[in-house]
Specification:
The protein is an all-alpha fold. Helix content is about 80%, strand content about 0%. Helix 1 packs across helix 5 and helix 2 runs antiparallel to helix 3. The two termini are about 25 Å apart.
Length: about 210
């Protein structure tokens, strides 16, 4: 219940931007399909996830930075620092799931985007887990003011991630090509969860020692 309350708090903070996120997540895949037809809707899905997750996370961080005493009040209430940290990770994953649902609906409505691809979802889950897994501990350690430009850097250089993900999605010949598909991509998802678990543990340790005064 504590985690759900904190999650609700984060979504209330970004409620003005949720509709924008939904529109952006819906428009980017068909737009990028038009601009880069060789990648079907994959490129657009990748960009929509990166943009949506980091845009909303950035806005929550801005509000927390503008009102630093809010964290002190939450800690004074029955909300542990551990739960406050974990809620940020859950918040990002909920946004990712929403992006997957939106893109999944679009693949049925707009056949030009290609078929619903679980492989792409698994690979993007690992990628966004890695981004969040690195970004959040750094933000908890250095503070929002010193990490606020990371969002812009991620968006600017995000097109560079596409070839890597495409090569992983279509591995070709190699040792992993002989592995069952379900085993390979289940392992990728498990690795993503492991990255999040390690990152969350590190963030909790950092935030537990932080001075909120």
């Amino acid at each position: 219940m504590m985690l759900l309350a904190l999650l609700k708090k984060d979504f209330l903070i970004v409620k003005k931007y949720v509709l924008i996120m939904v529109v952006v997540a819906a428009l980017i895949p068909p737009f990028m399909r038009w601009r880069t037809p060789e990648f079907m809707g994959d490129f657009g899905f990748i960009l929509s996830v990166i943009f949506s997750v980091f845009m909303l996370l950035q806005y929550v961080s801005i509000k927390e930075y503008q009102f630093p005493k809010a964290a002190t009040y939450l800690c004074a209430a029955p909300f542990s620092r551990k739960m406050m940290v974990l809620s940020k990770y859950v918040f990002c994953m909920v946004i990712y799931v929403l992006c997957c649902v939106i893109y999944g609906i679009e693949t049925f409505v707009l056949p030009g985007l290609g078929a619903l691809d679980i492989k792409l979802f698994a690979l993007m889950f690992l990628a966004i887990s890695a981004f969040i897994g690195i970004y959040l501990p750094i933000q908890y350690k250095l503070g929002f003011d010193k990490t606020k430009y990371i969002f812009a850097v991620i968006i600017i250089f995000s097109p560079m991630y596409l070839p890597v993900l495409m090569r992983m999605k279509n591995p070709g010949l190699g040792f992993h090509s002989v592995l069952p598909t379900y085993f390979l991509y289940s392992s990728i998802v498990l690795i993503g969860f492991a990255v999040l678990a390690i990152s969350a543990s590190l963030s909790v340790k950092i935030y537990t020692k932080a001075d909120l005064a």
